Amino acid sequence: MNYIDFKQGQLHVEQVPASQLAEQYGTPLYVYSKSQIIKNWQLFKQHWPKPHRLCYAVKANSNLAILQLLAEQGAGFDIVSAGELKRVLKAGGDPASVVFSGVAKSEDELRFALQQGIGCINVESAAELERIQQVAAELSQSAPVSLRVNPDVDAKTHPYIATGMKANKFGIAMADAMPIFKRAAALPNINLLGADCHIGSQIMSSEPFLDAAKRMFKLVEELASEGIKLSHLDLGGGFGISYEETDRLDLENYLKGVLELANNYPELTLMLEPGRAIVADAGILITRVEYIKATDDKRFALIDAGMNDLLRPSLYQAWHDIVAVQETQNARGQLVDVVGPVCETGCFLGHARHLTVKSGDLLAVKHAGAYGFTMSSNYNTRAKPAEVLIDQGSSYIIRERETFDDMVRGERLLKRT
Ligand SMILES: Cc1ncc(COP(=O)(O)O)c(C=O)c1O
Ligand SMILES: N[C@@H](CCCC[NH3+])C(=O)O
To answer: Its family (predicted)?
Structure first.
């Protein structure tokens, strides 16, 4: 995280003082660094030579400007809804470079994706395969598909974001895969391109990834021996980042390891779907302390950002570093619970943090670039925050703060005569 640093006693985001951003755009405010996003993307590219492909997972941060930056870098995209596909198209992404994941795709979504010339639909069940066949037949098209297989690997992450175990709703069980691949190969409007898996998110060790990859390569071989030749294998995303800056996923080691395994399959293009690893450490959330409340046993900093702005702490007990924007002399500070305005005890951004803060001070929540804004909501009729991108010392608004009118758009009062 070197695009943010303390200078002249306060936090700067690429030379821009955080207090200036708060002043100009208000708080709470998401701030992203263009250079950090590009740097993260380049790191993957550097260790993932062509013809292997990278599809950025749009759900991590779907702001149009960020998708545009990544499209300009030649990114493909992993989407999970027609809405995300519309974002990619609007941002200048190539539909042929898009893969479409998700367990409950509707007929309308499948039709739209096929009409747009989607690169690949990642099929999650036998029933979905039949639906795609029917929609593609109606359109007189051949649907490019991959079958998502659940490799039954424990990713050792939070249970809500582990996706590759038998008990999870995702993908086709490995034991059931062969007949469904055979069916896909035989259906007239299906163009079977590949297989895919995704075992979870915020994974901190190479082992589960390599374990899943080995199972998938074995499946590729079994399919080949049955006469089914795949052209790609998509190993998903899930690369963990260091929220606490104490542990680190050895990404290069994993990428190297999987490329070595792939040496035996020269005709297979590999794909990855990183989301968090591209944007998480490129964003912060700036928030202002409204009040301090001290009780007999607790000290609370009541801030203007809540679980509706950044849900991760409330939903996954996720830990995000929180720093004071103005550097304080007493660096260790007092123990403070940093809590938001939403009427839920679970609305907090951090418990028991050492901070020296008073009412009116600004705080920055780090590593907020992924699954931050995209998981925000209007709960408590709170407007979603603005988003700003910093590029070479200048700030650009890439999403306006919502207004009350934005929030009630589409709602109707009952007619009274
Ligand atoms: C199918 C699929 N691909 C990619 C991702 C991106 O994951 P991450 O942001 O952890 O890289 C996800 C989310 O976990 C996903 O469900
Ligand atoms: N939303 C999760 C990641 C889920 C990934 C989606 N498959 C998080 O914030 O960590």
So the answer is: Belongs to the Orn/Lys/Arg decarboxylase class-II family. LysA subfamily.
